Automatic annotation (TrEMBL):
InterPro entries on file: Aquaporin-like, Aquaporin_transptr, MIP, MIP_CS
Gene Ontology biological process: hyperosmotic response; renal water transport
Superkingdom assignment: Eukaryota
CDD domains linked: MIP
Keyword Membrane belongs to the record: yes
UniProt xrefs under Gene3D superfamilies: Glycerol uptake facilitator protein (1.20.1080.10)
Family the entry assigns: Belongs to the MIP/aquaporin (TC 1.A.8) family.
Chief place of localization: membrane
Membrane-protein topology: Multi-pass membrane protein
Protein's name according to its UniProt entry: Aquaporin 1a (Colton blood group), tandem duplicate 2
Annotated source species: Kryptolebias marmoratus
Subcellular location(s) per record: Membrane
Amino acid sequence: MSEIKLWAFWRAVLAECLGLIILVFTGLSAAIGSRNNTFPDHELKMALAFGLATTTLSQCIGHVSGAHMNPAITLGLLATCQISVLRAFFYMVAQMLGAVAGSAIVYGVRPESIDSLGVNKLNGITPCQGFGFEFLLTLQLVLCVLTVTDKRRKVGQYAPLAYGLSVTVGHLAGIGYTGCGINPARSLGPALIQLSFDDHWVYWAGPLSAGVVAALLYNYLLAPREELFSEQTRALLCCGWEEETEPLLGEVKDVE
């Protein structure tokens, strides 16, 4: 509980909220702003909007919060004891609030002739198939983030670009089938504003389970660490495991 007393902790939480506001505002504006939603121009526009916004925001807030901007990434790090339960909880709450706020802004400034708000919906596939798409697309995203931010690889300044490209790839592959959620907070925002929750569980179950699987897969199979699980568990219950892990896209220092 000591980290909750630090101003740096609350700056990080605020950064996650602000990041989702801008990300969702940018992505949804691109999704509903096309005059003629023709394939492939519309899908490419959305993919680039979400991907480039992710890259930009990672540079802006990576050194403040680690630039998770996705509950699936936060949950994955929690599952492998790389952040504390407290930080994960407040990050997820901030991400959801930011996504709702960003969606509300788009809803308020959109032209009256546009009824859509970019709510993710299944397109010609079953919920189980949608779950599969969301799971695999989020799996590659979380694996990418964990890989490029592993300080043993020293990727450094290229991590935000890789993060953004992974988001772009996910959208190019999944927009035509699920709308490409790969981020429960992004899916929640417009769905809550428009009260449209058809098959909404797909956009939570798929990404969140993929986040956990990706983190466990990377940390215990693809690139295992030497730390004992007991040490990680202790760190999880205290203030987060920090010896071999840096914040996602920048160094976060807790100072009073």
